[in-house]
Amino acid sequence: MRLGGKSSGSALSDAFTQCINCKKTLFKRELEANLLVCPHCSHHHRLTARQRITWTFDPDSFEERDQELQSLDTLSFPEYGDKLGSAIQKNGRNDGILSGFAALDGRKVSIAVADFSFMGGSMGSVAGEKVTRTLERGCESRVPAIVFCASGGARMQEGLLSLMQMAKTNAALTRLAKKGLPYISVLTDPTMGGVSAGFAFVGDVVIAEPKALIGFAGARVSKQAQVVKAPDDFQTAEYHLKHGMIDRIVPRRDLRDALIALTSTLGGQLESA
User: Fold this and answer.
1) pLDDT tens-digit readout, 68-110
2) Contact at 8 Å (CB) between 212 and 236?
3) Contact assessment for residue 112 and residue 131, using Cβ atoms and an 8 Å cutoff
4) Where are the alpha helices (DSSP H) in the chain?
5) What are the chain's domains?
6) Of 53, 110, 138, 160, which sits with the fewest C-beta atoms within 10 Å of its C-beta?
7) What is the pTM of this model?
């Protein structure tokens, strides 16, 4: 039997998916309507940058910038060119970060949104440049800057060109702060390595999604270095909130309203200054 050109088995398999946390079978349509949050265990599945922009900001308000930027294989790192080309072809863009302007309840903001599906969200020279330009546009336009972090760390195939992005983005953050402009950092699953050590934790307000993996070294490296057993919630958003490393944990469904409230409060102070 065939339905709409597909076998009934194929149609059924396309209609369902499985939660990677609780393993329950879910209707894809219902999961998407719930912003990819499992209705059974509340696990926040990873979003693409496009999904996050669509579900967070005002409809059709995103104005993309910097899409022409593309990393170079300066070190002639083995197989890097092929992997980068494959990621570009698969994702339909040159890098994992989407950057530009958007609006929150009518208020203009400068944004950068990372996508873990592009080479593990690794921070290369283009990712660092896009975040830097996002912060600089915030300075130039005198609007809040918001960065959504999702990364496995620095992109090793670019060597020091990747690592220097930590210093470059922090220099841009300093300029933003000197102008009294707000920077909001949103940590999603995962936020690791050079991104966590760079621009992720230095927001005026640092928000995380529930149970997001956050830290510097990966779990295997951390276990090898531990003298004592780490807590069960180590490197989670909840652990970081408990120890004062982040300001709030906000479920995805409430994130837009939280950002509207923050940009309205901080932006309102800016407008009255």
Assistant:
1) 999 999 999 999 999 999 999 999 999 999 999 999 999 999 9
2) yes
3) yes
4) 8-15, 28-33, 49-56, 80-91, 125-141, 160-178, 193-195, 219-225, 237-242, 252-272
5) 1-45 (no CATH), 46-272 (3.90.226.10)
6) 160
7) 0.91
